[in-house]
Amino acid sequence: MVVIGLWVAVSVVSLFWTPYQLLATDGYHVWSSPSAAHPLGTDGVGSDVLSWLMAGSRTNLAIALLTVCVAAALGLLLVAAMVSRNSAFA
User: Which of 4, 34, 71, 80 places its Cα 20 to 30 Å from the Cα of 90?
Assistant: First the structure.
């Protein structure tokens, strides 16, 4: 629950704030290791990895919620079909 709570918190925070703009690049800090300016370092074009991780958490959260909703709906439909076909469950 703690991990999911942190995931949701990071997703919500990333809607309003990320350390750097997602498409901002810094040619002087390509593949830099973690530092105070870039807590998770930078990638091959100089983009901040933390900013991309925060933005990606929104997409992952949306996909996870959609998957849970679809699975719950299918499960309810299957249970309803079983109950209506077999009166032993009723």
Answer: 71
CA gyration radius, the chain:
21
The encoded tokens of residue 5 equal 């709570």
Within-domain flag for 58: yes
**DSSP bridge partners of 48:** 42
Residues 6+ apart with CB under 8 A from 53: 40
Q: Domain residues for 52?
A: 2-10+30-85
**Main-chain phi, psi angles of 86, to 5 degrees:** -125, 115
pLDDT digits (tens, 9 = 90+) for 34-75: 999 999 999 999 999 999 999 999 999 999 999 999 999 999
pTM of the shown model: 0.81
Residue 68: other Cβ atoms inside 10 A: 10
Domain count, the chain: 1
Tell me if 20 is assigned to some domain.
Answer: no
